Design the sequence.
């Protein structure tokens, strides 16, 4: 992440995420660098959450292809929430999973192999968290049913009663996002 520190006549430090995802820091003239670093460390969660939001808003409003560099950033941003979601839902659903891979692909949001290895699309970093959770639950439900049978959807609905709303988001916004992966 690019961090730009500007010294100014001010008493406190301020942080702002710029539209390109870089961090704009305004610091008092005499504040030591290590104090700025310590502050940034304390604010790491805030920075990550807001940065993801800024990038998401920006991406959703665009139509151009997503660059290779942006895809790498999305991969990084998607990893934390996907792993967190897997750790939360797998025990709840009573299933296990193997290797987790995050790919930037234009075809699918996720997949589950017969041996339980999971694939997720890095574009999930641009989707609302509820939608990311839906894709995770969908793939985990394939650990019980390797098809899209009524029993499969029943399992998804047991965990996420409002899964249709989440799936609709993908149907409405997903195609345009996938189309922008080169
Ligand atoms: Zn499926």
Sequence:
């Amino acid at each position: 992440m690019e961090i730009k520190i500007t010294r100014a006549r001010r008493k406190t430090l301020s942080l702002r995420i710029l539209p390109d995802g870089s961090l704009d820091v305004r610091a008092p003239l005499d504040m030591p660098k290590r104090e700025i670093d310590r502050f940034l460390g304390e604010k790491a969660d805030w920075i990550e959450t807001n940065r993801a939001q800024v990038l998401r808003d920006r991406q959703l409003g665009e139509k151009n292809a997503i660059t290779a560099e942006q895809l790498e950033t999305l991969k990084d941003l998607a990893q934390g929430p996907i792993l967190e979601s897997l750790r939360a839902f797998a025990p709840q659903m009573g299933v296990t999973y193997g290797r987790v891979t995050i790919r930037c692909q234009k075809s699918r949001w996720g997949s589950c192999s017969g041996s339980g290895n999971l694939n997720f699309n890095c574009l999930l970093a641009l989707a609302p968290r509820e939608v990311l959770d839906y894709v995770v639950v969908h793939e985990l439900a394939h650990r019980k049913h390797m098809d899209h049978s009524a029993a499969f959807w029943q399992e998804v609905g047991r965990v996420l009663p409002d899964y249709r709303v989440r799936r609709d988001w993908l149907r409405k916004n997903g195609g345009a996002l996938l189309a922008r992966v080169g």
Notes: The longest helix spans residues 68-93. Residues 138, 142, 148 surround zinc ion (CB under 6 Å). The CA atoms of residues 157 and 163 lie 6 Å apart. The mean pLDDT is 92.
